[in-house]
């Protein structure tokens, strides 16, 4: 083998590198940072301050109230002194501590590949008792509980297939919308199917209710057409958020809490419901005086009311979604109803009531953490004294740092999923 001189070898390598075409670098993504240059820009909370304000609340009282609701002993209507009722698919459900009724019509009998039976399940569950809806290994999720409970109704062919693969015999469920950890549901809708014809509605209800008493409760079970899909067939989602005031809060205002080292460390907020990393440029904030420490519930209502009948962009109000959603035309949802009002939460343990702000949102769909981002941002803008159209102006941005961090999941509740045209009469807040 003939060795080439080092200089010659280096020259050949350099020539080869020059002949190889270098791929062009990908174009840089220019995110539009919303400039808060209005009159209240210096009064607006930073992400860290907003997070502190939202989490320093007596959320345990809200959790207790939601737990009583899941067990059928409380109702959201009690907050406003109204009659207790809810609507599913146009059929009224009378809810009290003893019973819940649903009038439904079973799907017609079919043959061949349409012979499988599909069941629609409306259930409630306490958010703090689970690690969210979606089934995940090693976590206590609502989907995992439901599918294990319904495993006894799986047909023989599927059960044998699961045994051969050494998998647990669980049913397969589809849900109207996956809720985050800590979010309660009062009218979540899911479905599952089986080729067994001997499955009774009562058996499904007993199987789920017996899996986690006090944490889940079946409102209704009905047989529906195979065409039914809990998610794609839904026309609107109804969410409710309860924001509690502290005992020392004055009327129509709340004080900003101090920063606790246990709450924030190195820019990452911990806790059971935390874990969100906030990229906050607090060090770049100008030196200013004390920021406003109060907000009016009526102002929050004015900000949210501007969203009604509007298309709301996902790319600014939905957190933790793919960056590709910031490119191209925005994906939007239509807001049917958005209101806020003051209410008093009953506290049976102390025999008193607690002043709260209730926010009601209805839209055709929401993305992950979208409702919580809307709640926190509306409160932040109300405290800063922003204009009524502040939430609409935020849609001009693509950087999600323009909005506030998501509000705690403890106050959020999925009230209902609708499969008929939206009727404003079903809302609690006029």
Automatic annotation (TrEMBL):
Tell me what reaction this enzyme catalyses.
uridine(38/39/40) in tRNA = pseudouridine(38/39/40) in tRNA
Pfam families found in the cross-reference section: PseudoU_synth_1
Name the UniProt key words of this record, in alphabetical order.
Isomerase, tRNA processing
Q: Show the GO MF annotations.
A: RNA binding; tRNA pseudouridine(38-40) synthase activity
Give the Gene3D superfamilies listed for this entry: Pseudouridine synthase I, catalytic domain, C-terminal subdomain, Pseudouridine synthase I, catalytic domain, N-terminal subdomain
Q: Which domain of life is it from?
A: Eukaryota
Enzyme class label:
isomerase
Q: Which terms under GO biological process does the entry name?
A: tRNA pseudouridine synthesis
Stretches assigned to the Pseudouridine synthase I TruA alpha/beta domain: 355-419
Q: Is-annotated flag, keyword Cytoplasm?
A: no
Known EC number: 5.4.99.12
Recorded hits in InterPro entries, A to Z, give: PsdUridine_synth_cat_dom_sf, PsdUridine_synth_TruA, PsdUridine_synth_TruA_a/b_dom, PsdUridine_synth_TruA_C, TruA/RsuA/RluB/E/F_N
- Which HAMAP family did the record assign? TruA
Q: Which family does it belong to?
A: Belongs to the tRNA pseudouridine synthase TruA family.
Q: What is this protein called in UniProt?
A: tRNA pseudouridine synthase
């Amino acid at each position: 083998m003939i060795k080439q001189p080092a200089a010659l070898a280096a020259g050949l390598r350099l020539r080869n590198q020059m002949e190889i075409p270098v791929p062009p670098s990908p174009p840089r993504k220019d995110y539009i940072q919303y400039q808060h240059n209005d009159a209240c820009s210096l009064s607006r909370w930073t992400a860290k301050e907003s997070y502190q304000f939202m989490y320093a609340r007596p959320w345990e009282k809200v959790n207790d109230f939601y737990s009583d609701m899941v067990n059928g002993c409380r109702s959201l209507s009690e907050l406003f002194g109204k009659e207790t009722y809810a609507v599913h698919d146009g059929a009224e459900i009378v809810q009290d501590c003893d019973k819940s009724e649903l009038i439904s019509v079973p799907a017609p009998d079919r043959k061949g590949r349409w012979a499988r039976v599909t069941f629609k399940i409306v259930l409630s569950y306490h958010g703090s008792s689970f690690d969210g809806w979606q089934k995940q290994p090693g976590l206590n999720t609502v989907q995992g509980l439901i599918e294990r409970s319904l495993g006894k109704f799986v047909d023989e062919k599927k059960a044998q297939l699961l045994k051969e693969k050494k998998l647990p015999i669980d049913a397969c469920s589809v849900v109207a919308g996956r809720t985050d950890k800590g979010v309660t549901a009062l009218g979540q809708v899911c479905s599952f199917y089986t080729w067994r014809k001997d499955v009774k509605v009562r058996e499904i209800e007993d199987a789920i209710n017996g899996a986690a008493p006090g944490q889940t409760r079946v409102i209704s079970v009905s047989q529906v057409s195979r065409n039914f899909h809990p998610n794609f067939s839904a026309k609107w989602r109804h969410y409710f958020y309860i924001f509690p005031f502290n005992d020392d809060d004055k009327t129509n205002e709340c004080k900003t809490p101090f920063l606790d080292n246990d709450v924030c460390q190195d820019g990452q907020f911990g806790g059971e419901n935390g874990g969100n990393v906030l990229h906050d440029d607090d060090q770049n904030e100008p030196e200013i005086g004390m920021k406003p420490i109060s907000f009016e519930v009526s102002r929050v209502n004015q900000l949210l009311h501007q969203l009604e009948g509007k298309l709301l962009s996902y790319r600014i109000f939905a957190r933790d979604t793919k960056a590709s959603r910031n490119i191209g035309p925005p994906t939007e949802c239509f807001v049917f109803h958005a209101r806020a009002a003051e209410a008093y939460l009953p506290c049976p343990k102390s025999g008193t009531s607690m002043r709260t702000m209730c926010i009601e949102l209805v839209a055709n769909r929401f993305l992950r953490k979208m409702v919580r981002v809307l709640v926190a941002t509306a409160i932040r803008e109300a405290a800063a004294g922003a204009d009524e159209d502040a939430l609409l102006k935020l849609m001009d941005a693509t950087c999600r740092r323009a909005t506030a961090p998501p509000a705690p999941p403890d106050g959020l509740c999925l009230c209902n999923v609708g499969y008929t045209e939206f009727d404003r009469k079903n809302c609690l807040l006029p």
